[in-house]
Backbone:
């Protein structure tokens, strides 16, 4: 038995025979093209370009049908690559100036870009080169008149082992007999990994040489939760994994029954269970979970990757659609929290080279610097209020003056709309994110002007502990169980309740099964959870008693060390308080 460790890309366990995919290396020869035939060669290239566009249209239809609009955006990315001057202009230029065949000119152009991609440090952006290869391969296949490989021809259930899988291979996986896949290359944030997660196909990537260590027909266990490939497993290992596989199927089924049920604790307290909506395209998934509301609608996606801000009417459409679909449940729409790691290219005056962007012109600071942008969003949200139960949330509030300035702009937007004859509800609640220590400490004052609060633990932890949330060098210090975090959270909830205000928690901490008893014990009103963890967290809430969770919090508040708090939690876990809690469920990662 050989155990190979890679990067967990899509969770789940698959057991079966391996199918090793031959590397689809396309060898490109250089041919000299006589001067008189250069025009024809460019024409041939353009015909291949057109054929590739048609391929993409076809792929888009397929993705729309099987995976939905969110993933169809991948095809837009591929269209953008295809229409880049690097392909449309540079390749014909190379053909003509170097007098070479189109295949060679194309592969040279692609290699130049690949070298640029390889230098990128950020993994997410580096991984985007696979999209470039994907488009390049489609184009080359047309030039060489080669059929693209078709995984539906694999005629028995198998675990696919490949050097690399491109997004265009992955799109079709649901139509194949493939149980899971393992690749030498690839990272967690590649489109291939993202697609595998959406299709719920277990996957491990970044295994370096798995294609050399496995042969077609070998028995393989693929553990997508822990990033393991086990080749020729012992009968004991197979039995162990079969048991785990059955257990997780049972657990998924049990979780399914919780959709739409009220989240009531064992001592009869009802908790509101909300979902975080990061992109409007996820709405379908969110609705299927039947939550009590959307506790955080992050609107940044509407503003990113574009050079002009979205118009008021474009925003009205987006917010109204969400508000209508969720009605009568609440939708908390957060005005755009841009800046930090969410860089804007909106043509507005925003700094691009801040030394500490998370402490820079971000969230409410950026919006107040650009009142027109801010007011347009407020007007759009206000217009959507008639269609559902909408509340407004302000990110990154650190002082009373920011809250007052926002309220003032909000009042102006309201007056404008009323003067334009738009009907508005009498009262629209405006709340603040509590995610900066100064807001936590000033909360009693802020609550005189804020209608509710939502605790953003992702930022609150980074600012309380001085640990950059995206810096891997200090990731071990990013600790939701640090006694300071527990104390501050408890103080925030207590202060808000003393002022009779509604409290939601919307950071990733709500998706960490170990943190749920703490938040329930503090008595927050809503947990707003990422869609993927929603049902599991709900199951935990329903297995807890508020009285014992509150006792647990009182004990935790006396402790000086994170380890002691975690030990206390582990005792709770050992006592069986958290259903379905396993080693794979305990990682905490800020989003
Ligand atoms: C948070 O900070 O916890 C939060 C929910 O906001 P974001 O992750 O969007 O900064
Ligand atoms: Mg935040």
Residues:
């Amino acid at each position: 038995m050989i155990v190979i460790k890679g990067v967990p890309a899509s969770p789940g366990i698959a057991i079966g025979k391996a199918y090793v995919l031959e590397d689809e290396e396309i060898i490109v020869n250089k041919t000299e093209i006589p001067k008189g035939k250069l025009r024809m060669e460019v024409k041939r290239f353009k015909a291949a370009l057109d054929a590739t566009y048609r391929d993409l249209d076809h792929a888009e239809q397929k993705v729309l049908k099987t995976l939905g609009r969110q993933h169809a955006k991948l095809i837009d990315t591929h269209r953008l690559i295809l229409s880049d001057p690097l392909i449309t202009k540079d390749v014909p230029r190379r053909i003509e100036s170097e007098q070479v065949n189109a295949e060679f000119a194309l592969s040279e152009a692609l290699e130049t870009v690949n070298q640029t991609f390889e230098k990128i440090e950020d993994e997410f952006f580096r991984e985007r080169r696979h999209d470039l290869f994907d488009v390049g391969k489609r184009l080359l296949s047309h030039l060489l008149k080669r059929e693209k490989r078709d995984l539906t021809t694999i005629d028995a259930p198998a675990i696919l082992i490949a050097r690399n899988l491109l997004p265009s291979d992955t799109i079709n996986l649901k139509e194949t007999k493939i149980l899971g896949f393992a690749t030498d290359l690839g990272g967690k944030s590649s489109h291939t990994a993202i697609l595998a997660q959406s299709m719920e196909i277990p996957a491990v990537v970044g295994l370096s040489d798995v294609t050399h260590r496995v042969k077609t027909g070998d028995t393989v266990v693929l553990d997508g939760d822990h990033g393991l490939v086990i080749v020729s497993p012992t009968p004991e290992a197979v039995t162990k994994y079969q048991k785990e596989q059955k257990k997780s199927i049972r657990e998924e089924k049990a979780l399914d029954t919780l959709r739409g049920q009220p989240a009531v604790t064992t001592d009869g307290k009802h908790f509101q269970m909300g979902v975080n909506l990061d992109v409007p395209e996820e709405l379908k998934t969110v609705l299927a979970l039947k939550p009590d509301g959307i506790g955080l609608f992050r609107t940044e996606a509407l503003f990113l990757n574009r050079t002009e801000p979205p118009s008021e009417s474009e925003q009205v459409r987006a917010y109204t659609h969400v508000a209508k679909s969720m009605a009568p449940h609440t939708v908390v729409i957060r005005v755009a929290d841009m800046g930090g790691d969410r860089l804007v290219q909106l043509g507005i005056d925003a700094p691009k080279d801040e030394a500490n962007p998370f402490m820079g012109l971000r969230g409410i600071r950026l919006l107040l610097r650009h009142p027109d942008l801010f007011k347009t969003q407020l007007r759009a949200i206000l217009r959507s209020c008639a269609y559902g139960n909408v509340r407004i949330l302000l990110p990154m509030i650190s002082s009373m003056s920011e809250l007052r300035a926002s309220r003032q702009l909000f009042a102006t937007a309201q007056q404008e709309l009323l003067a334009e004859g738009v009907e508005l509800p009498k009262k629209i609640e405006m709340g603040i994110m509590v995610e900066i220590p100064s807001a936590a400490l000033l909360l009693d004052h802020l609550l005189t002007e804020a209608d509710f609060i939502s605790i953003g633990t992702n930022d609150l932890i980074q600012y309380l502990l001085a640990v950059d949330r995206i810096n891997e060098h200090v990731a071990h210090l990013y600790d939701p169980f640090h006694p300071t975090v527990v104390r501050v959270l408890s103080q925030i909830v207590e202060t808000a309740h003393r002022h009779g205000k509604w409290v939601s928690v919307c950071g990733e901490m709500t998706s960490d099964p170990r943190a749920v008893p703490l938040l329930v014990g503090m008595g927050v009103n809503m947990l707003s959870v990422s869609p993927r963890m929603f049902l599991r967290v709900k199951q935990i809430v329903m297995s807890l008693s508020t009285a014992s969770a509150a006792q647990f919090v009182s004990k935790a508040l006396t402790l000086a060390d994170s380890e002691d708090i975690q030990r206390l939690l582990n005792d709770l876990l050992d006592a069986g308080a958290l259903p379905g809690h396993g080693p794979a469920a305990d990682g905490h990662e800020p989003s």
In short: Residues 255-577 form a domain with the TIM Barrel fold (CATH 3.20.20.60).
